[in-house]
Amino acid sequence: MSHQAVPCRLMPKRAQKETSYYPSESETGPESEVEDDEDYDAEDKASSSSKNELKINPAVDKIKKKIFPFMSLAAEIKNMIYEYALTSHDEIPLVFKMKGYRHTVVLGDDKTFMACCSLHEKFTCTRQVPSSLEVRPSLTPAIVVLNHETYAQAQPILYGSNEFALEDPKALLAFCITIGPKNCAMLQKVSLYHFGNTTARRALRYPAFAALANAVNLQNLSLVCCIRPGDALRTARDFFRDGHAWLEAVGAKEGRRDAAVDRIQIGSQNISRYGGYDTDDTTYEENLEKMRTTFRAELRRLLKA
């Protein structure tokens, strides 16, 4: 069977009229062209303004008007606000805590500090806890992370205007690592309430003071703890063995090897072997001053100042 091809009829192309989108000047004239352009611009502006009006939410606009213009305040007023929000008249007690598998510190309480002093002290001595534990300091550190500008302005006030009371070397190490070297350099006052005389905590003394070596601007390091009660020489040697990194860092910055010695306040718990106090105030004051003088002299000898 043979296949016969069916002839296809080609349709003629449809004639299209030429479309002119812009009328010629001969038809309308230059004046009408200007009028058309003005009408087009007016319609365009009207349509764009109507779209913008639709996008604005009245509730959001009302909230924006209520936002306090904090960033437009004068620098002196902002510093006053930072001081009220970020400073405490008492010490800020910090204790070690494992949080989210991370070593960090949190605000401590009376129970935590007393447990630290009573369970981990090798020597029997007078227990002391920060006075601020009676009323915990209420700070507002969230203002620091408002933006980059507030971060730069508030950090020196937060770390430079407060006194931080650390539980032990483990808390001191976690604190220094958490805030970082830059913020550590802003510290002015630090207190240590336990020197870590147990075997487990003794190994953390050197790393803790090595991390504190970034605090070259520290003006007051209070050792409110028992180190070697009744022996000022051994107290100085024990502290130098673990804290020489901080001592040498401060000396290098100040250009004087013993610059950090006068910044150390040794606790009165180290006067006698049992941490007791004499009934005679004159004898107590004399023993305290003698112990501190011997402590500082031995540190200067070890620093070769």
Oligomer: single chain
Radius of gyration: 37 Å
Shape, please?
A: elongated
**Largest sheet, order of strands side by side?**
2-1-3-4-5-6
Largest sheet: 6 strands, mixed
> Quick check: average pLDDT?
78
- Regions with little confidence, pLDDT below 50 for 5+ residues: 117-127, 274-279
Strand content: 5-15%
SSE pattern, N- to C-terminal = HHHHEEHHEHEHHEHEH
Number of DSSP strand runs: 6
Name the structural class.
Answer: alpha/beta
> Termini distance?
121 Å
What does this structure look like?
Strands 2-1-3-4-5-6 form a six-stranded mixed sheet, with helices on one face. The protein has eleven helices and six strands. Strand 1 and strand 2 form a beta hairpin. It is α/β, with parallel strands linked by helices and 305 residues long. The longest helix has 26 residues. It is elongated.
Question: Main traits of this protein?
Answer:
single chain; 305 residues; alpha/beta; six-stranded mixed sheet; 6 strands; elongated
Question: Can you give me a brief rundown of this structure?
Answer:
This protein has 305 residues and is an alpha/beta fold. The chain is 49% helix and 10% strand.
Write the layout of secondary structure elements.
Elements: H1 25-28, H2 30-55, H3 58-66, H4 75-86, E1 92-99, E2 102-107, H5 110-120, H6 148-160, E3 163-166, H7 169-184, E4 189-192, H8 199-202, H9 205-211, E5 220-223, H10 232-254, E6 264-266, H11 281-303
Parallel strand pairs: 1-3, 3-4, 4-5, 5-6
Antiparallel strand pairs: 1-2
Helix pairs in contact: 4-6, 7-9, 9-10, 10-11
